[in-house]
Amino acid sequence: MNLAPAFWAPWAWLHGGWVADVLLRVDSQGFWSEVSAGTPAPADAEQLPGPVLPALVNAHSHAFQRAFVGLAERRDSEHDDFWSWRDRMYGVALRITPEQLFDVAVHLYTELLAGGYTHACEFHYLHHAPDGTAYPDPLAMSRALAEAATATGMGLTLLPVLYERAGFTQPALQQDQRRFATSVDSVLKMRDSIRAWCLPQVSAGVAVHSLRAARPESLHELAAALQADAGPVHIHVAEQTAEVDDCLAATGMRPIAWLAQQGLLNAHWQLVHATHATPQEISAVAASGAGVVLCPGTEANLGDGLCDLPRWLAAGVPLSVGSDSHVTRCWPEELRWLEYGQRLRLRQRNVAAAPGIAPATAARLFERVRLGGAAAAGFAHWGLQAGARADLLVLNTLDAGLAGLPTERLLDATVFAAAKRPFLRTLAAGRWVGEDAAHVEQAAQAAITRRFAAAMHTLWRD
Fold first, then answer.
1. What average pLDDT does the segment 182-199 reach?
2. Contact (CB, 8 A) for 277 and 317
């Protein structure tokens, strides 16, 4: 009889803390069938070379924007903000092909796997050909992302985006947004088609670009169509103060308050950014059961502002993190940015800690985003527990930031002391994946990088 694949770890992060001698068995579908602590290593188990952490969900990704990283870090006019960055970002959005998107996404997903993510929620609004017409295969761009995820071992929740207009007072999209155009009907058809592919580790929900980009009647039509669907619904909201001001002018309400007042929010909804939220809005989100996706690296890069993290934590709102534009590509850096932004804002230390309940800052943030990431991706379970997907990270205890530290402080050091990605190996759905996978040779990794560089050269040669 063939025994299920099994792994044994000297230490593993279970139930919010480190536990010794942990046996983990994988079922035939790539999920944990058994997670047992205090167990001697059995003969059939692969003994892991270090402590293990759950991997995390990257809850907000625009893969094509990886081709823009590093190309917007100069200013040629008096003022530079999110809106000027967006106009420049459209340059890559208007040029990238499905073939180039595949190469960029393969490179990105390999980076994300090395950075501790094993699943990405792809907020996908780049659908049509550069002239705005449909491809012969209307899902060509979605298919490129799914194929890139399959090629690398990255799990994927594809979120086709409802995108109808350029702003609250605009009847249609701008010319430079022509590749984004969708309707409620087309978004739902894309979701259903992606699900019909039945690809391992690839699922689908839907997204709304923002309140400014979708008509109120369309939001209600979409919500009605989703009543019997268990998939996640993501929306950019309150990222910029200008967006809040425009929403106030158009509706008389702030964007999060408007969503709550319209009765749209529930546990399937994920509010991406939600940077500029009032205490009343935070309470309304908590009452609805909706989650919030924070993207500290991108929010810093774009000058968005700082969220009210202490209130989000205190309200018990499900939280997750995403790398969004991919200026950062590992979760320890996102959690570090999340905490350090609050320290600078409040001139305090260990802002996210909860003395007497969760005194370790890294542990409290990690556990909140582990749980919140599950909901953002559409999973009931996530982490080192039976029924969750068999994903984990093996820590490198010889990393300069981790060497010599007691086990109970390793997560703290992973977030606040490790200068690089301190992971030896990455497991996704019971298979070793990413840059450190045993089956990936250096030559194959070099080929991925060469193809990415070639795509970049073509995109930016002018």
1. 98
2. no
